[in-house]
Design brief:
Elements: E1 7-9, E2 12-14, H1 33-56, H2 63-92
Antiparallel strand pairs: 1-2
Length: 93
């Protein structure tokens, strides 16, 4: 069994040794805090919109509507991935 298998205890995430996960905090602010805020907002919005579209998928009236919904989900996934990559690059400096 892998030593880093997570166990849930009283709402806290712990590894199998009972240690809490290590949280990494940056000591220096982002080079562009406004861009970082915009990217964070974009990630949250795209994830929320994707979930909503996927909820609507089973209720689509036709295959054409399903394809339109899936096309939009896939476009949002690309935008989400791009925003996450830009955030990672910004945070790495």
């Amino acid at each position: 069994m892998n030593a880093f298998v997570l166990a849930f205890s009283l709402g806290d995430i712990q590894d199998t040794y009972g240690h809490a996960p290590i949280m990494v905090e940056r000591f220096l602010p982002a080079d562009d805090p406004v861009l970082e805020d915009v990217l964070s907002w974009t990630v949250a919005r795209d994830a929320r919109d994707m979930a909503r579209l996927l909820e609507w998928l089973p209720d689509a009236r036709s295959v054409r509507e399903q394809r339109v919904l899936m096309s939009r989900v896939m476009a949002l996934a690309e935008e989400l991935e791009s925003a996450m990559e830009k955030m990672a690059a910004l945070q790495q400096g």
